[in-house]
Amino acid sequence: MPSHLVVQELSKKYDSFVALAPTNFELMGGEISILSGPNGSGKTTLLSCLTGLVPLSSGSVQVMGYDLYRDEVEVRHRMIYVPDVPRFYLELTAWEHLRFIALANGVEKDFEQKAERLMKKYGIWEAKDLFPHHYSRGMRLKLGLALALIRPFDVLLLDEPTSALDEEGVRMLVEELRGLRNAGAAILLTTHDPGLIDQLADRRLLIRNGEIRPV
Amino acid sequence: MKAIHWLRSRQEERETAYWLSFVAYEKSDHSFNNRIYLLYLILFFGVWVFVTLTFFAGGGAILFEMLSPENPVRVALLVQMVLLAVWSLFSAWKAIRRCPVLFSEEDGLLISQTPLPRGRIILRWLWMPWLKSAIPFWIMAVIFGFSLAEVTIPGAMGANRIFEYMGFGLRAWLAILPIHLMLFGLHWLLGVVRLSTRGNSNRWLRIAVPVLALFYGILILSIGGNVIPSVLQIVDLILIPLRIGYAGVFNWLVWVTTWILAFLVLVILFQSAKNFSLSRAVQETGKLELISTAKQYGFTSLVEQEKMQQRLGVERKPTQLPAIAGPGVLIWKDVLQTKRTFRLTGLLTWLQIFGFLFVLPVLPDMGSRGIVIILWIIQLAQISVKRIRSDLAVWPLIRQLPISHKKFLRNDLGFTYLLAVLISLTGFLLGCVVFGMQIPGLAWLVPGMVAAISFAAVFDVIRRSRSGLLLNGSVPELSAGGILLGILFAGIPLMTYLLVSGILGMLLAIILSWGMGYLAFELVAYAYRNIDHA
C-alpha cells in the first residue's frame, strides 16, 4: 500500500522550547497507527501540526503526494482531523453543522440519508436540532466524529477519540475504524486506553518529550 | 459556618481588590510604601469626595430654594423618597421573578450540598450587595444634607462652620442607613420566600409589589402635605427618621427605633430562609453571576457568548435557507448566523454607519467632518471583525475546509462588506439629496474606502491571533492599531481627493481607494495563511 501521509523532518518549537523534535514517519493506507505517550509529551501538538492548525517550525507534510501548504485545498479534501474537544458555531444546530461540512466538501448528494445514518449510529439523532453547546462532552465528540465521517478522506487523525465516549460509543467507533482501515484509509489516533491499543493497533508509535519512535 | 465565612470573605476581598486596583492600590502588598500610599489615598479621596459633594450640594441648594423656599426639607424628602420608591419597587419586582441572592456555579458546588443553616448563609451573603446598593443613596443623602445646610445655616459658609455643615450631612446619612437596610432586607425576604415555598404561597408574593407601590404612594402624598387617615400613618416609620435627619436635629430614640425595625426585618429574613432552596437559587443566578464577573474583568467575548447562548435557546428547526455548495456555503452560514443573532440593538451600529455619512454633507467645516469620518471608521471596523472572529473561534472546523484561503476570506467577509457599502453609500447619497447638496465625487470613493477600513480591521485581528489560542476558541479583539490602520488606509485616498483638484484628483483618489482596499485584502490573506508568523 502506498504512503498516504509522509512526514519529513517535522519539528515544532515555541521560542527555545522544543515541543516536537525533528521527526520522520509515514502512514500507510489500510493501517491504523496508534500514538501514545505521557501527558504533555506532544501528541496533540503533532496532530495539530500535521493538519496545519499549528504551523510547523520546519519540515514538510505530504498527503497523497500533495504538500500541506502548497496544495492546501487538495490536502483538505483528503485528510480530516477530529480534535479531542471539537469546536462548533453557537448559531448552528448539529444537523446544520453536518450540512455545512457536506456542502463545503461538495458531498451534498444523499446528504440527508448519510447524516441520518451517522447520527442514529452514534445515538445523537434525537438531538439533531439542538445547538451543540447544549450537548454533553461525549455527544460533542460524537458530533465531531460524524462531521469527519460525512465526507470522504484518505487520512483520518483522531485525538483521544474515546476519552468521553460511553461503552457503546467506543464499540461503534472501533467497528467504524476497522471498516475504514479495510477500505484503505490511513488512520492515526492518540490514546491512553490499552484496550483500544490492543483492539486496533497495526502499528504503535511512542512520543516522549517531543521525540517520536516506533514501538 | 467558618468555612462559609472564609469563602465569602475571600469573595469580598477579591471584589474590594478589584475596586482598589482602579486607584493602583495593591491589597496584597504589605510593604511600608504601600501602607503610606493607602494613607495618602484615604486622605486624598476623603478631601476629594468632600469637595465633590459640596460642589453638588451647591446645585442642590439652588434647586431646593427654587422649588420650595419656605420648606426645603420637604423637597429633599420628596426627591429622596421618589428615588427610594423607584429603586425599591424595581428591586422588589426583580426579587419575585429571580432570586436576589446571587450564587455562582462554584458556590453551588461548594455550598448547596452542605447542610448548613440557610438563614445564616443568606445573612452572610447580604452585606456586600447591600453596601453596593446603599452607597448611591448615602451619597445622595449627604448631598441633600449639605444642600440643606447651605439653605439653613445663616450667613456665609466659612471654615469655622465646617463641622456644623458636616453635621447636616452626617445626620442625613445616619437617617438613611437603617432605612435602606430595612428595605433591602425586605426585597431579599421576598426573593427568599419565593424559593422557600412552593405552589399557592407564591400567589401572595404577586401582590407584594402593588402593596409596596401603594405604601410609597401614601408616603409621597403625605410628604406633599396631604392629610392621610391615621390608620395609614404607618408610613411615618420611614418618614419621621428621614424628616428628623434632614431637619438638622438628631433624635437617638427615633434612630434606634429605625435600627430595631431594620434588625427585625433581618430576623424575619433569617427565619424565613429555613427552607430556602440553594440549588434553585444557583440555577436562577449561576449564569448571571458568571456574566457579571466576566463583565467586571473585561472578558467581553465570554459575556457575549453566554448572552448569545441564552438568547438562542436550546434548539431550532432546520433552516430552509437555500445553500450553495463549495465556498458559497460560507454565505449561507453567514446569513443564518446573522438571522439567528439579529437584535434591534445590533441595528444600532448599522444605523450609526448610515447616520454618520448621512450628516456628512451638511457639516460646515473640515474639523467636524473629520471627526464624523473617524467615528464612521470606528463603527465600520468593529462590525467588520464580528464574523471573522466567530469563525476563528472554531479554528479546527474552518481551517480544515477544502477552500483556498482567498476564496474563504472573500466569501466570509463579502456579505458584511457589501452590506457596509450599501448602507454607507445610501446614507451619504440620501444626505446629499435631503440637504440639497450636489453629490460630490467622494461617493465614488466609498466602496474602496469601506474595503480598506474593513480589511484593515480584519488584518489586525488575524495578525494578532495565535494558533495555540485559536484551538481553545480564544480570539483577539479589534485593537486601536486596527482602527488606526483603517484611518490611514482610508485617509490616503481621501486626502488625495481633497488636495488634488479637478478630475485628476478624483480619478487618482478612486484608484487609490481601490488600491488601498486591495492592499488591505492582500494583507488579510497573507496573515490568514501565516498565522503565528504574520
Give a short synopsis of this structure.
With 215 residues, chain A is α/β, with parallel strands linked by helices. Chain A has one domain (3-214): 3-Layer(aba) Sandwich (Rossmann fold), CATH 3.40.50. Chain A has seven helices and ten strands.
Please give the number of β-strands of chain A. 10
CATH topology of chain A: Rossmann fold
Write out the CATH superfamily name of chain A.
P-loop containing nucleotide triphosphate hydrolases
Structural class of chain B: mainly alpha
Major sheet summary line of chain A: 6 strands, mixed
Helix/strand/pairing class of chain A, anyone?
alpha/beta
Q: Kindly, what is the distance between the CA atoms of the first and last residues of chain A, rounded to a whole number of angstroms?
A: 21 Å
What number of domains of chain A? 1
* Radius of gyration of chain B, taken over Cα atoms and rounded to an integer in Å: 30 Å
* Helix and strand pattern of chain A: EEEHEEHEHHHEHEHEE
**Could you name the CATH class of chain A?**
Alpha Beta
CATH architectural group of chain A:
3-Layer(aba) Sandwich
Residue windows where pLDDT falls under 50 for at least 5 positions of chain B: none
Please work out how many helical segments of chain A DSSP would assign: 7
Q: How much helix, percentage-wise, in residues of chain B?
A: over 70%
Strand content of chain A: 25-35%
